[in-house]
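Q: Here's a chain of 246 amino acids. Please give me its 3D structure as tokens.
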Amino acid sequence: MIKATLIIAALFLVSFALGSIPWGVIISKVFFKTDIRQHGSGNIGTTNAMRTMGKAGGAAVFILDFAKGLGSGALGLLVAAYLVTENPVTSLPWLTPLLTFISGDKIVAMQMSTLELAQQVCLAVSFLGCVWGHIFSPWLGFKGGKGIAVAVGCLFMTFGFVGAWLELGIFIVLVLATRYVSVGSIAAAAACPFFSLYFFWGNWFSVALCTIAALTVVWAHRANISRLLAGTESRIGSKKQQQEES
């Protein structure tokens, strides 16, 4: 159990390190000879990257941040496969007590294979690690982006293709309806715990980690929430946004 715990802890740290790579800052400095943090909202994410570096720069930041999420999820699946392959459940290895402890019940009673449960745990761990790394990047004084592109990349691994597109659907519909990127982002993050209940039902440890990740993303949008409540948040295409872009 101790060895499995250490491996899963290492997964979290590696995912955190992967998520902490500040692609917005790197691209702005290397290719545009500026610092994205000194323009617009000062955020290192996709929206401010488009305002600061145009569509090409914004697309590059989105793709690389999205890839961080995909990469951390793929790493989670590899770790889960390693844990189960090296420690078959039939021999009651050190992995089984940990998974049973996490699930709060017998694995068989959950009608879930050891591999499925290990995958859920490792995906949730890598999801939280990558999102936290992006939002609390140690390379930027434990500051960073708001976690949307990274989270979407993670969710394609964590919830699968359907779950991730449902999350994207919430984001797209609300952005088109309100012209507030922040509204779509906050709503998609708020929906994440409910999706995790569906996909990880009975695995409360993984549900809790996904919920913490989602709440952290909402917290990262606290300034946007304040501006929305005050009616000062800029809409897509508004004069305020155009001034920020100039």
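Q: Can you summarize the key feature?
A: The radius of gyration is 19 Å.
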